[in-house]
Amino acid sequence: MRDEARPKKSGGDRVKFSSYDTKPKRRGFEALKSQGMQMNHQITFLSDGGDTVRELQLYLNPQAEHLLDWFHVSMRLTVMNQMAKGLGPEESESRAGALKQLESIKWDLWHGNVFKALRQIDHLEADLEGEVITGASSEKLRVTLQEFQTYIENNQQWIPNYGELWRAGETISTAFVESAAIKC
């Protein structure tokens, strides 16, 4: 038999669960309620874009603002950037071109321009499929890029202008929570 998680206040607006929960939706709702959440309060949820997390957030507060966490977008772009560095020597045009396109994709997503970012992804994918960029590393990057494209397409309605929110002092990332979880 598994322990039921009990929400514990951990300071500020955070609620921590200490073990497996057999009723996470209800327990999460009760935890937010114990923190003072009311249905007419404006709440912003950040998530990794996974369906199960999004469903939980929509259950907890359907009127809340739902955002794709910049940390998860950035981590995926960082991985692809590292892959692109393996496309050849520093002076290689294909390597430089892929890195430049990835930087453009990141810039477009940071500014909430999903349409333009998806077009850039298509261009880079075409370069990787064609003769422009070749090699084993290019195939691995192409597959990862296709997965990223699907990820962005599935979450495009939750991609804000991160730059604007950041300049306004709003939270756009759960990186501080992710790093604390890794230390545990």
Q: What strand line-up does the widest sheet have?
A: 1-2
Molecular shape: elongated
- Total domain modules: 2
Q: What are the low-pLDDT stretches, counting only 5+ consecutive residues below 50?
A: 1-11
Largest sheet: 2 strands, antiparallel
Compressed to H and E, one letter per element, the order equals EEHEHEHHHHHH
Query: What is the CA-CA span between the terminal residues?
Result: 24 Å
Beta-strand content bin: 5-15%
Rounded mean pLDDT is 80
Counting helices, strands and paired strands, the structural category is mainly alpha
Task: Summarize, please.
With 184 residues, this protein is mainly alpha-helical.
Structure explained in plain terms:
The protein has 184 residues and is mainly alpha-helical. The chain folds into two domains: 7-69 and 170-183, no CATH class; 70-158. Helices cover 57% and strands 8% of the residues. The chain contains eight helices and four strands; from the N terminus they run ββαβαβαααααα. The chain has helices spanning 24-34, 51-60, 70-84, 93-110, 114-129, 136-155, 162-167, 175-183; strands spanning 7-9, 15-17, 44-47, 65-68. The strands form two sheets. A two-stranded antiparallel ribbon has the order 1-2. α2 (51-60) links the parallel β3 (44-47) and β4. α3 (70-84) packs antiparallel against α6 (136-155). The longest helix is centred in the C-terminal third of the chain and has 20 residues, at 136-155. The model is unreliable at 1-11 (pLDDT under 50).
